[in-house]
Amino acid sequence: MMGERLYVGIDLGTYQSTIASSAGVMTTIETVVGRPKDPVARNFLGRDVLFGDDAMKNKLACNLYRPMAAGVAQDDEANLAAAKAFVTHLIDAVDPEEYDEVFGVICSPSHVSFTDKSNLVATLRGQVNAIMVVTEPFATAYGIGEIACSIVVDIGAGTTDIARIYGTFPTDEDQVTILEAGDWLDLQLMDLICKKYTGAQITKDMVRKWKEEFSYVTGDVREVMVELSVEGKKQVVDIGDLILESCKRIIPLVGSAIKKIVATADPEYQPILRNNIILSGGGSGIEGIADVMADEISDIGDVTVTCVEDPIERVAAGALVLAQDMPDEQYTSIV
Asked: The whole model's pTM is what?
């Protein structure tokens, strides 16, 4: 393979990250880095750093880092080091050493600061030869062939990003980012559980898994039985009503952001945009969200809201298509 170029599309997410390569590899890894707490833990684990599920399984023996909060590397030494290690691990999954050079399209939230972008580039230096940084909604739209006239709503973990797409790279004016996303929803659900079941001992990771498995926003209240501890005693409780309530809380917030994107668009194109609203990201997996979102924003006129297929892989897959289509002058060398 020497002498050939490898293209990669990378979606660096708060809770999970995906890389897709032109060699046909697609890998998703939980965005978490673990470092042994002390020499005993180091001897027990047999390595200096752990990633993804491996880190989570051994989290009591590790200091855990989620270095991509809100989709960008956190600006402190420990998290930047963790981000660098994680990105190296992620790119290693596609065997880049078999190629002379690696060109990558990296996806970020719609509005990130200069420092955030600089940190993102720093984590990739030495791993790829050249990069482009694009927004997650644009990568999704490009990958599914919906760049003519659409609104893409990426409901991720750290942020929800909404963008108007119309055949070119979106500008800042075409995009809105709000902090109410999956991470926010987890905190809402955790608060509701703690209020209903006084003394419940739960973690954010437990709540996130329940949400991902059982989330819904339509129909009657469902029974969702889960096991938790109250002062060390096992209890099996029903959180179905709480999942419904917490998931519904995000609807008007995202709906308001969508309305803003429509209202500030060219009026001639607003009817087309209203009827091509595409939900993506992990939050698009909430059962019934497309229909409920359509009802939420129906006061602006006729609307059509759909969800992408395979939302976890969709951003990286779109980034890879873009990487292969773009001329070299669109890339920034970071060797």
From this structure: 0.90
